Amino acid sequence: MARIAGVDLPKRKRIEIGLTYIYGIGISTSKQILSKLDIDPNTSTDDLSETQVNDIRKVIDNELKVEGELRTEISMNIKRLMDLGCYRGLRHRKSLPVRGQRTSTNARTRKGPRRSAVKKKGGATKK
C-alpha cells in the first residue's frame, strides 16, 4: 500500500483517482503530476513500483501544499478575515453563507437544522 503525504492510498484504484484522496489534490492536479512523471494514469495503486511512489512523493513535497500545511493556511486566512472585521469575516463568525447566497430560505448546511419556535398552550383564562 502506497503512503504519500501521510495518507494511505486506496488499493485497487487507478492512481489518477487514488491521488485525489490527498487533501489539496484534485483530478486535474493528479493528471499533471502523472504526466510530468510519465506514469500511466490507468495503473493501479497496487502496481506502482517503489521508485514511482518515491517520485510522486518528491513532486508533491516540493511543488504542492497538501494536507496539514494547506489546512493551516486556509484556517489562518479565515481567522485573518474574522480579525479584520470585514464583511466576509463577519459572515464566517456568524456561520452564515459567505458568498452572497440567500438565507431567507435554504442555507441549511451553514445554519444547521431548523430550530422550531416554542408555542405556548392557548386556553381560556379563569377568573
CATH topology of the largest domain: Helicase, Ruva Protein, domain 3
General form:
elongated
Can you tell me the CATH class of the largest domain? Mainly Alpha
Percent of residues in helices: 40-55%
Instruction: Give the helix tally.
Output: 6
Q: From the helix content, strand content and strand pairing, which structural class follows?
A: mainly alpha
User: Ends: how far apart?
Assistant: 79 Å
Radius of gyration: 24 Å
Question: What does the main sheet amount to?
Answer: 2 strands, antiparallel
Description of the structure:
This protein is mainly alpha-helical. The chain has 2 domains: 3-64, Orthogonal Bundle (Helicase, Ruva Protein, domain 3); 68-111, 30s ribosomal protein s13, domain 2 (Irregular). 46% of the residues lie in helices and 3% in strands. It has 6 helices and 2 strands. A two-stranded antiparallel sheet has the order 1-2. A hairpin with a 2-residue loop joins strand 1 (3-4) and strand 2 (7-8). Helix 4 packs across helix 5 (87-93). The N and C termini lie far apart (79 Å).
